[in-house]
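Task card 7
Instruction: Convert sequence to structure tokens.
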Amino acid sequence: MIKRHITTLVKQSLKDFPAILLNGARQTGKSTLAKQLVQDGILDTYVTLDDLATLEAAREDPDGFLLQFQGSTAIDEVQRVPDLLRALKKQIDAKREPGRFLLTGSANVLSYPGIRESLAGRMDIFPLEGLSLGELFQQKSHSSFIDDIFSDKSKSIPLLADHFRKKCQKHPLLNREILKDFVFYGGFPEVVLKQQSAFRSRWFAAYQTAYIERDIRDLSRVMDVALFAKLFRLAGLRTGNLLNIKNLAMDAGIDQRTASRYLEMLSLTFQMHELMPWHANSSKRLVKTPKIYLNDSGFASFLAGIDSPAHLTGHTMLGAIAETWVWAELRKLLIYTPNIQTGFYRSHLGKEVDFVLCKGQQCRGIEFKRAESVTTKDLAGLLDLQEALGKNTQGILLYTGDQVVVFPHNIIALPLKCLL
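Output:
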């Protein structure tokens, strides 16, 4: 079994908080993790609201449902009974002890209309995404990439370069050909561990059908699921691009208000992420439209009709889908470094940086290139970002080569393998 790095965080949090909420798309491994914690003796009981009898009992009497559990309990798919949050608050306030409940959700129950109980101060919250690069390579712990680029070493680009040269020396090369496999299969455990193209296609087709027919119908009984499915595919084909809600709605044959509601559903169920533009205090005119990313690059390539890693070569969406994969990897690492603000940078003159991460006054622009070599021509966006954000900004260029390269103006090029 692949070790999930987030398990260490969850175990620690169970010692500090009465409740933990583990959020993420279906099939990312939430249930597996919860069951493993029971097997390891960290939790006493596992129940799932996917079981119809259990679901009915929880809906009929949330308070009575919780009273039957005397020890620590994992409750899977809590979004199916939102009223459990009120009952959980009552239980926790009556007996405030750490580690009483682990909740999992395939939709963000805290964003449901009418939900008044957030369990603030009583519950810690973690997102669980698909398998990370480090987990696939079975590293013992999560990558320190985010911590490294904000560490004291980062105050000097030459020091940071030396650190990454030593750290990444033994890591396997992630060149353009190897990258295509990771991009094609994505991070859903069943898909990426199987590594079979035909199985992947069948799995994503079944996943999409089950997601729409089950999760979306649970959220909105009056939604036109056929139109939702159409918008889902069209939005997936726009992954890594600026969101143009007017054009998206027109292509889907729906009004903009409905398109916005459907996109909100995709976000609520962790199928899609919006990355907001970075607004700098400068004279530059910056784009204010968000970018959208599908949750998983494998799913994005499936929606694009790509049926093998080889078919990614020369495909018009290769750059956007590869960027989708990089953003997913960064999100998986951001879990371990709190208080990082995220965004992207794009000026009206077309200068752009894929990702901007800021911690306090320190900002890092991260640009991704699929090329196996980089030149000063690749630095235009990072230089523009530095001019806009000021002296506390460093530029990081991730690429598929094998050398750490220091450029002038506080910019460093790092092999993609440094994400390990």
